[in-house]
Fold each of these.
Amino acid sequence: MQHPDYEIRRFRAALDGTGEDARADAVTGAWIEAVRRGFHENPPVPGQVERMVGFYRQDDRELTGAYATGTPDGAVDTAVPVATFGTMRHTLNTGAALLPTHQITAVTVRATHRRRGLLRRMMTEDLRRAADAGLAMAALFASEATIYGRFGFGVAVERESLRIDTRRGLSLVGGAGGAGAAGQASADGAGATEFVEREAIADIARAVFARWHAVTPGSMDRQASYPGVIDGTLREEDLEPDTAVRGAAHWAADGVPDGYVTWKFSGWETGPTTVRVRDFVAVTDEAYRALWNLLGSLDLVDVVTWEHASVDEPLRWAVADTRVCAVTEREDSLWLRILDPVAALQARPGGAPGSVRLAVTDDLGIAAGTLDLVSADGRLTAVRVADGVTAGPESEAEVTLSVAALSSAYLGGISVLTLARAGAVDGDPEAVQRLAAILATDRVPQCLTDF
Ligand SMILES: CC(=O)SCCNC(=O)CCNC(=O)[C@H](O)C(C)(C)COP(=O)(O)OP(=O)(O)OC[C@H]1O[C@@H](n2cnc3c(N)ncnc32)[C@H](O)[C@@H]1OP(=O)(O)O
């Protein structure tokens, strides 16, 4: 059979009707169905698609579908897109600013239409449109690490999965170890830790996460459905209530919550008995230690697991026995793609004072150019000196790297020196060292938002 042609359509999610009777309109419903098939998800339960549409609208997501046209024998159902691509905008904490960022999600291509360039076409068009709209940065989470480097994305944040043996408690260094006693003063004395009813978690989570997002490099702000997924009012699989979710919070001495954790118990059927942390956010060190003390104090629980730990997690340095805290996996978390190097670099902090002339290569042409980068007083200034990277001697660069490598180095999570040793950064070693010092940061980035 001859390959069909494809028409790309972009639209917003919409409902037909109002109130209880509202239903996803045909185009939106077909797009969501294509995504579900692409990720091998079960058919939706009644009302689930409509709830998703509500969240998509709150996030102002743009939905892109590729539709097969001109099939000679009409064998392809042209109402359901053969490929999907979703985008929305939230802010990224760069370490110096909250940068509006173009997020890409829900990328699927039907198996019968794969490897014909549909992803390349949607991605290329989308990144150009985002750059034309003035966005300096794009971001995604990758299903496979081999797909997105070719489009200029680099891993900027990594994360670790921890398996913590709590059979003997955690005995946090510097803590009294008794924070698990509900309602009592926390480990460091001033605040208090307490279990929280599910209905109360979302409000606490919203407020605490907003503070955490404002101060944590690598954090992406969260989409509309997030509070419900955290507190169990929206189970991820079907957006139905998940009554197995439990939670606790920590209140500072002034009575304001400064940390929370939610979790699920794995059940009695399998051993060791395990509590799986769903979300752990603490804006003060006191709250951080008190909440880990609480998790370590849960009776009848042998193991606590958490899949969103930083690669520089303080927990292992807070426990007396560092071996109770095992890393079971380390994987890429947030991928970034710089669209406008001048705007993106000026939105991040400067490290050591100094300057360097930098050439950025970009196979898609969006971010390519030669820049003068100056770091002073903790700020970066970037000036474009040439559009290309092969201009005359007056714009010759000291360091050359791809936009993917620069995006990996952007938050300071992946060192320029490490990238240079990997062959991803070219230049005189002294100039590479200077760039590394300019982009160095004092905090490893962490992202607690999946999208
Ligand atoms: C941000 C997110 O949503 S992550 C989720 C991504 N989606 C999935 O994993 C769902 C299952 N997979 C799919 O739907 C598809 O296979 C996709 C989306 C990964 C790829 O779509 P396709 O239309 O087949 O990709 P397309 O034909 O445009 O290929 C573009 C390039 O990527 C390469 N590529 C595509 N998929 C992969 C892969 N899984 N691994 C490595 N390379 C890949 C192609 O070889 C091609 O390379 P080239 O242009 O440099 O020669």
Note: Residues 38, 104-109, 114-120, 140-144, 146-147, 150 surround acetyl coenzyme *A (CB under 6 Å).
Amino acid sequence: MPPTPPEAAAVFGERLDLAEHYVALLGTTGITRGLIGPREGPRLWDRHILNCAALSPLIPRRDFTQAVIDVGSGAGLPGVVLAIARPDLHVHLVEPLARRTAWLSEAVHELGLDNVTIHTTRAESLWGTLTAPWVTARAVTGIVQLAEWTLPLLSVPGQVLALKGSRGPTELAEAERALHRLGVARCEAVRLGSPRAEDATTVLRLLVDRPVDAKRFRAQGSSSAGSARRRRDRAKSGGDGKVSDRGDRPTSR
Ligand SMILES: C[S@@+](CC[C@H](N)C(=O)[O-])C[C@H]1O[C@@H](n2cnc3c(N)ncnc32)[C@H](O)[C@@H]1O
């Protein structure tokens, strides 16, 4: 297993042993069962764990439990990392592929995490049944399609936090008008500095201050304008937006 970097202690505090255990699971059965690419083993900490943990300071601590919906969790990135770093949060992992959620269930059980719920389904199928003030996602799809899938999951006020790489600000600039049309009140690209990051990390933050009606997206989803926008969005982001059962690419950060 890759050695634990010194920054990890500051991020995980007394739950560092849990983070190390999760890295060990990712680096063994996570790889053999195809949840994470075989070349990711040596860079699990830098490219995955610390990259995902960078989201944590964007969710302020409250004196009550806040829910987070992590969409397209794959091997639990960033949802499991947040659940380990932040026992004050309850994290819902949303992942449609049963093969992946089977591994996630075993991992969550082995880590003894009691602040995680796993949903084997697509984000859109939870519209009207699950809401939270925070939605997180990494490497799932382009920002406009992600907004379509996730804005109906937000309680108000609420935020989508999408982890991106150095191209994040450009992606946001290109998507801003479409995002406002979908009901986003404000959006910004937050640059996160990490001395160990291979690539600059950006979080695209979408703020919503009134409920977003999912019916609008159902209607848009059937329109040719909606389909054309999604095709453009996918092409720009490199995200496929499809649910395929191949091994995860490292990320499209
Ligand atoms: C490239 S993987 C990224 C996994 C993880 N977030 C990471 O950074 O390693 C994208 C994941 O999104 C899931 N996904 C695709 N469409 C989805 C949808 N509509 N709702 C929820 N998850 C979806 C896929 O099954 C896949 O596991």
Note: The mean pLDDT is 88.
